[in-house]
Design brief:
With 653 residues, this protein is α/β, with parallel strands linked by helices. It is built from 21 helices and 27 strands. The strands form six sheets. An eight-stranded mixed sheet has the order 22-23-21-20-24-25-26-27. It has a seven-stranded antiparallel sheet with strand order 3-2-6-9-10-5-4, with helices on one face.
């Protein structure tokens, strides 16, 4: 057999994909919620959950990863939120003896429920991770092997469905616990004693209690050490002393003396950097994270061999420390306290924006024409539904502002207030409205197909709409009365379309996309605009989710409205400027199309007396599709980590 996931069906009663990749180690991950700066005495919540996609990535130094699919509501799992907020987690070996506890801890429980207590497991705690003195990570005492891990990064992979989206979390192993009884006489971890369990396909598991050995022929010491995972032997075989905290500096030659031509030894980057700059955030002491933030001259000097002559290097670098200190003071990673202002115009939980000891959070009123003077030194401003006066005041008075996180899908209000994107980083809330807009679009489609709007009109007149009830034709050709077998075209196939499509497909619709470039996206065929005429002629419902710019101005004009069948409906949840409203009104009045459901308009609010209010078969929605950012805290936290780490921000304009 052969099938293409997302394109063709496997025609089996059960999906075989996961059953092909077996056995998979179980990532039994324990975490702790962050301490709340506003209430440090509050006890954190402990979390424990198994993940069936887990593995080690490397051994020198050791890294591991696990992946967590989104919740059915489209949110990050509690485990991922905790890891990203506290920068640490623990992996616990799942064993045959603990199998029932592992399974029980997989239940979807409220955030405040402690899975250790819920399933009856004893705790012990991590001791070598950041912040362990105040808030250590719980570990499964009964598990024979445990890894204490510091957080490295998260890779978000998009999904074709809500739960298909996945967060791939990478951590560095900082400490390893192995029970003495789990070791053999030869000093090896004895799988026959620990009996790890692993995931297979479907609801199946496997237990590992037997092993066999094979050594590749002809391997040299370095290769064999790598296969064994022996970091010390691997380092020694490469001609350098073992030091799991070293920075692999490039080969270089000294210019004079007996050392000419000899390769320099490795020197711990943390040691070198701290000797130069004092205490540096441990999370930044990797070459990739630190180098882009150092002055160019220092960055180049760190490329040089750091032999005993390093102390000469340190002495001649010392005079530049004053300028270096100044650079650090203006760096996003400065240890000085930073101030973030967040809006009270939506329910934003500041307790979720934690894990940043140098950050203080302050609410503000977005409708006020001013901002409190004590907050004029804020460096980060989160905006949502701010008044024009409020933003204009911020432009003039927040002189230390370095970054604006708008929760709106676009930055128009921020830019029109006068903020300069070349001086202040501006990021949008793109992605926060995907699900709410998709939900609203689905509601408008169902309203149009099932004619709820007409039923409401009859109700207000005190009349019974009998012609809309009772026995009805099923999927009558040349009508739009159901999503079953309806030909739905989505014009503007971005993230909102990807959120909407699974719901349409589940209700039986045939979905096609229109975009500037053609291709297959999340299993849906998307046509280029050169096919627009042919696609519109075969459309029962057109959903428009186009952005508002010059290229989409009146994209649906009189000519293109004429391509649609006279029963077709137009739904617009993108931008009002994408439809020629005069041409649409004429098409509605002349019954050239079945109807329209509009959430956006060229002028908003739509002026009183506008002819669209009285148009035939028009459902009017007052720009209500968005308005409820979903996952705002997660976006703020993600961008905070990137901002403090000097990385490219998400959704930056």
């Amino acid at each position: 057999m052969f099938y293409q996931p997302g394109k063709t069906h496997h025609n089996l009663p059960f999906d075989p994909f996961k059953a092909c990749v077996v056995p998979r180690p179980i990532g039994w991950i324990s975490t702790t919620s962050p301490l709340t700066p506003a209430s440090p005495s509050t006890q954190p919540t402990h979390n424990l959950a198994p993940f069936s996609q887990f593995t080690n990535l490397s051994f020198d130094p050791p890294y591991v990863m696990f992946s967590a699919n989104q919740t059915p509501e489209g949110f990050k799992k509690d485990t991922v939120r905790n890891v990203e907020s506290t920068a640490k987690f623990v992996w616990n070996l799942a064993t045959w003896d603990l199998r029932e506890k592992v399974n029980a801890s997989a239940q979807q429980l409220p955030f405040e429920v402690d899975e250790f207590e819920h399933v009856g497991l004893e705790k012990e705690f991590s001791s070598c991770l950041p912040g362990d003195v105040q808030n250590p990570v719980p570990m499964v005492r009964e598990s024979p092997v445990k890894f204490e891990c510091s957080y490295h990064s998260t890779l978000r992979l998009p999904g074709a469905s809500v739960m298909g989206g996945v967060d791939l979390v990478i951590g560095k192993v900082e400490g390893v616990h192995i029970a003495d009884w789990a070791l053999s006489k030869e000093g090896k971890l004895d799988i026959g004693k620990t009996k790890p369990i692993a995931r297979c396909g479907y609801y199946d598991y496997a237990v590992l209690d037997k092993t066999f050995e094979m050594v590749i022929p002809g391997g040299d010491k370095a290769i064999l050490a790598g296969l064994e995972g022996n970091a010390e032997q691997a380092q020694q075989s490469m001609g350098r002393p073992p030091d799991e905290q070293t920075l692999p500096l490039p080969k270089s030659r000294l210019r004079s003396g007996s050392d000419t031509g000899r390769q320099a030894p490795h020197v711990p980057l943390a040691t070198a950097a701290n000797d130069l700059f004092g205490n540096i955030d441990p999370s930044l002491t990797t070459f990739g994270k630190l180098s882009h933030r150092l002055p160019v001259s220092v960055y180049l000097m760190l490329q040089l061999p750091l032999r005993p002559s390093f102390y000469i290097f340190k002495s001649f670098a010392q005079p530049s420390l004053a300028s270096t200190t100044k650079t650090r003071a203006f760096s996003p990673s400065s240890p000085a306290n930073m101030k973030l202002l967040y809006p009270t115009s939506l329910v934003l939980d500041p307790a979720k924006i934690t894990g940043f000891p140098t950050l203080t959070l302050h609410p503000y009123d977005v409708k006020s024409p001013t901002l409190p003077s004590e907050h004029h030194d804020a460096e980060i401003l989160v905006t949502w539904a701010n008044s024009k006066d409020n933003l204009t005041y911020a432009v003039k008075n927040l002189k230390d502002l370095k970054w604006i996180q708008s929760l709106a899908a676009g930055p128009n209000d921020v830019l029109s207030a006068g903020f300069d994107a070349s001086r202040v980083k501006i990021t949008t809330g793109s992605g926060l409205h995907d699900k709410t807009v998709a939900e609203h679009a689905l509601g408008l489609l169902l309203n149009a197909a099932r004619r709820f709007y007409e039923m409401r009109d009859y109700q207000l007149q005190g009349k019974w709409p009998g012609h809309l009830g009772g026995p009805q034709p099923d999927r009558e050709k040349g009508t739009f009365r159901t999503l079953k077998d309806a030909r739905v075209t989505i014009w503007g196939f971005g993230n909102i379309a990807k959120s909407l499509t699974p719901h349409l497909v589940a209700l039986g619709a045939t979905v096609k996309g229109l975009a500037r470039s053609k291709g297959v996206r999340d299993g849906i065929e998307v046509f280029g605009e050169e096919s627009l005429e042919d696609i519109l002629k075969e459309t029962d419902a057109l959903v428009m989710i186009l952005p508002g710019d010059a290229s989409t101005k009146h994209a649906l004009n009189r000519e293109r409205l004429g391509y649609l069948p006279n029963h077709a409906w137009v739904v617009n949840v993108g931008r009002g400027t994408s439809i020629d409203e005069d041409a649409l009104f004429e098409a509605l009045e002349g019954e050239q199309i079945g109807g329209a459901a509009l959430d956006v308009f060229e002028t908003e609010p739509l002026p009183e007396g506008n002819k669209l209010y009285g148009a035939k078969n028009l459902i009017l929605s007052p720009h209500a599709a968005g308005g409820r950012p979903q996952g705002a805290e997660e976006l703020i936290v993600e961008n905070l980590r990137k901002f403090l780490g000097g990385q490219e921000l998400k959704n930056i304009i």
